[in-house]
């Protein structure tokens, strides 16, 4: 066991444990209502409003590429009118939440880790503690709550824009009849697809915020430490989203489709 | 009253404190001197629970704070104010928000009352009218003074100063020393100042403790320390880099 503890496996397991403890502390703080509205609203603004351009561009071009690829392939088997249904189901249950999560991890996760990491190396977190403020109450909980609240909305936006952009490509570029496109889309897209996408969005929002906060609060000294924490926040939250997506897909499919 | 008993602290393989004992009475003004990297700031951070000792005890008003959880420490820390070496102002907040930070969750104090107390604290540190400035707009000395205003605005019983004059010119250092004395006299606080600025130490301390070789090596009034004939104390006070040139 000591051998394991000294390897990267040990460090990885320890990191997971520390993130779990941070999540436990944050959830406890949330239920004790230690968050101020002002901090929460600022984080919602920062994560939600400031991520609009990234999410809109990601959603639109993903929907367009997906529609183009699907239309070409489905044309070979005379299923052109099912193009938008494929775009819709894919965007709702997989591409919308995952790509939004990855983009938010790059923008918000990095910013959270850099901001909190800089606070740590400049003793601002110690200053918080001397002012009788728990760093988790002030730094982690507002970001975690904002992540969980904002990500489903960003995901819904990416899905909506992706389907809209896919429709434009399918109907205007490939000339597929728009009525059949809509009818097939509505026929094959279930409420559960939308629900799965939004639930995934919630989970990924929480993961991005939590990993960003953890990496910031545990960052090393100096500019190098902050840089490393920022990079790790993006890499770890992106990998975590991709891994979690597989297990969430299995479990949510089992939940909604049984 | 603050008491430290047989405090030990290491970072990795490096031992920083090795059996430190000290006692600071209520209302006393104590200066801790010692070489850079000698563990003064580490010792100071133990007094407020920012660091936990490897062994030993830290007592504040008779209550052991070593081993307390972060949430339990919040209650103890409300007795303290602390001025950091870098001032550690929250750079996303204005001066007024920094100084009034401790009141932000206190619903019993109105916004007007907070503004009044912030203005009073800024007046005390001779920075009136700077409420809406950001820390990035302030000089090093002004940042220290805002940090001091933030540490005293809620009138703590104990104020800790971590190298308050480091990096400042002699005139600004002098103004910081005067502020430390003013805070001590006006609020009757217990002051603990960590510094290697000998002029400042002589001025603000009623008692000086010298940290050397990971322990409290010497203790006494400023006159006793400054007139000491101990070679290690003399060497530090005279600022001599090699012991053979001390006399």
What does this structure look like?
- The complex is a heterodimer of chains A (258) and B (247).
- Chain A starts with a helix and ends with a helix.
- In chain A, helix 5 crosses helix 8 (178-188).
- Chain A is built from 10 helices and no strands.
- Chain A is elongated, with a radius of gyration of 21 Å.
- Chain A has helices at residues 2-5, 8-31, 37-48, 52-76, 83-121, 124-130, 135-173, 178-188, 191-217, 222-256.
- Chain A has one domain.
- The longest helix of chain A is centred in the middle third of the chain and has 39 residues, at 83-121.
- Chain A is mostly helical.
- With 247 residues, chain B is α/β, with parallel strands linked by helices.
- Chain B folds into 2 domains: 1-79 and 158-179 and 189-247, 3-Layer(aba) Sandwich (Rossmann fold); 87-155, no CATH class.
- Chain B is built from 9 helices and 10 strands.
- Chain B has helices at 40-47, 70-77, 95-99, 111-124, 140-152, 170-187, 198-204, 222-226, 231-238; strands at 2-11, 14-24, 29-34, 55-60, 63-64, 80-83, 158-162, 190-194, 207-212, 215-220.
- In chain B, the strands form 2 sheets. A 6-stranded mixed β-sheet of chain B has the order 6-7-8-3-9-10, with helices on both faces. A 4-stranded antiparallel β-sheet of chain B has the order 2-1-4-5, covered by helices on one side.
- In chain B, helix 4 crosses helix 5 and helix 5 packs parallel to helix 6.
- The longest helix of chain B has 18 residues, at 170-187.
- Chain B is globular, with a radius of gyration of 18 Å.
- The interface between A and B is medium-sized, with 16 and 28 residues.
């Amino acid at each position: 066991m000591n051998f394991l503890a000294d390897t990267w496996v040990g460090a990885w397991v320890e990191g997971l444990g520390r993130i779990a403890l941070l999540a436990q502390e944050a959830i406890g703080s949330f239920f004790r209502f230690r968050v101020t509205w002002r901090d929460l609203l600022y984080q919602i603004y920062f994560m939600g409003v400031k991520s609009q351009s990234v999410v809109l561009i990601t959603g639109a071009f993903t929907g367009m590429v997906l529609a183009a690829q699907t239309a070409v392939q489905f044309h070979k088997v005379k299923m052109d009118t099912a193009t938008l249904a494929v775009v819709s189901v894919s965007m709702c249950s997989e591409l919308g939440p995952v790509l939004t999560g990855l983009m938010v991890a790059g923008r918000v996760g990095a910013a959270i880790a850099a901001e909190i990491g800089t606070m740590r190396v400049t003793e601002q977190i110690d200053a918080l503690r001397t002012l009788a403020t728990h760093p988790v109450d002030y730094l982690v909980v507002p970001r975690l709550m904002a992540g969980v609240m904002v990500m489903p909305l960003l995901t819904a936006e990416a899905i909506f824009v992706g389907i809209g952009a896919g429709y434009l490509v399918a109907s205007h570029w490939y000339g597929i009849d728009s009525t059949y496109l809509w009818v097939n889309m509505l026929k094959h897209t279930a409420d559960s697809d939308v629900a799965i996408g939004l639930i995934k969005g919630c989970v990924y929002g929480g993961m991005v915020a939590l990993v960003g906060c953890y990496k910031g609060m545990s960052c090393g000294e100096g500019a190098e430490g902050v840089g490393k924490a920022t990079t790790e926040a993006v890499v770890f939250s992106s990998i975590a989203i991709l891994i979690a997506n597989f297990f969430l897909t299995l479990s949510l499919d089992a939940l909604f489709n049984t | 009253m603050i008491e430290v008993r047989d405090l030990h602290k290491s970072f990795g393989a490096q031992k920083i404190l090795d059996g430190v004992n000290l006692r600071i009475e209520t209302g006393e003004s104590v200066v801790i001197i010692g070489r850079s990297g000698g563990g003064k700031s580490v010792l100071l951070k133990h007094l407020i629970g920012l660091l936990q000792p490897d062994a030993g005890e830290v007592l504040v008003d008779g209550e052991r704070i070593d081993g307390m959880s972060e949430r339990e420490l919040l209650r103890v820390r409300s007795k303290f104010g602390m001025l950091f070496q870098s001032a550690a102002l929250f750079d996303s907040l204005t001066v007024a928000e920094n100084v009034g930070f401790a009141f932000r969750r206190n619903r019993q104090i109105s916004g007007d009352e907070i503004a009044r107390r912030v203005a009073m604290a800024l007046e005390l540190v001779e920075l009136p009218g700077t409420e809406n400035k950001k820390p990035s707009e302030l000089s090093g000395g002004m940042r220290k003074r805002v940090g001091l205003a933030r540490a005293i605005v809620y009138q703590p019983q104990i104020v800790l100063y971590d190298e308050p004059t480091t990096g400042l010119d002699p005139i600004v250092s002098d103004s910081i020393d005067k502020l430390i004395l003013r805070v001590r006299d006006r609020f009757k606080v217990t002051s603990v100042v960590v510094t290697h600025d000998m002029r400042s130490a002589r001025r603000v301390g009623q008692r000086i403790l010298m940290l050397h070789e990971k322990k409290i090596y010497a203790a006494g009034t400023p006159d006793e320390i400054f007139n000491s004939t101990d070679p290690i104390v003399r060497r530090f006070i005279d600022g001599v880099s090699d012991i053979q040139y001390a006399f």
